[in-house]
Give the backbone structure.
Amino acid sequence: MESSSRWTSLASFNSVNRECVICDCADRLEWAEGDGFAAVQCAGCNYIWIDPAMSEPDLEAHYANYIGRRVEDTEMMRLRSEQYRIDADHLRSFVASGSVLDVGCNGGFFLDELGGSFVRHGLELDPVAAEYARSEYGFDVRRERLGEDTFESGSFDLVVMRGVIEHVLHPDKALQRVSELLKTGGTFFISATPNVESFCADLYREKWNLYNPVDHINLFSFATLSTLCERNDLSSVSVSYPYLETPYAAPVKDNAVIQEAVLLKSQNRWSEVDTSPAFWGNMMTAIFRKNSYGRDK
């Protein structure tokens, strides 16, 4: 599949240039390219990001009525609902109750899945989604950007970013605010986030099914994500790469597709390769805790 059929050209938006948010190294390598977008890799720390990317106002406009586009695909909503249950079950094995903030909570679906043992709050830029979460579930969902929010620091036992950190223009500032919002000893949960160290990411690059330079402007590995978290008093507790237990897995079919891609690449027939399938390692779920020796900021 050609890249132009998967995302809109960068020329359609106002763009901003970006630098590495992890280290001061100015050297970079091209990781993938298409339609004016480029994914670059820092030669110093291996962090990968889209440069240039859409501007903050264009990103916010892009996500307006995001919920509307999602609910139109009823089959994908069914699969997501099953994945919400899986992710919530995993998370509750680490923290079972308390105050929770879901950053980028969409229509409140994951908050609902977490259950009433949590006091549930959300941040959501999409006004339609925020209103849905408030009216359908009664959650305290504020249409505010993380870092410009009106929540008090040290308010939460749990902060969730489910399929969010890869979308954020300034992930370093976002994680600083996460740390501020958490109580000492609180839990930070990241899930449904692409893992750029996966086999498929390395093989497919711009044809990786999770390479979407309009939406996924940060391509983290667990190592680069952990580096940013640790700078903000957030220590890693757990990492996993859900695949077989998810509703997206079709291991026999997926393995066959990937084996064919490897063969075609070895034969210099990469133009015949389609977008990658779901596969082990593509997505990561990570849990961090705010250090007891840190301070509520």
Remarks:
- Residues 109 and 132 are 10 Å apart (CA to CA).
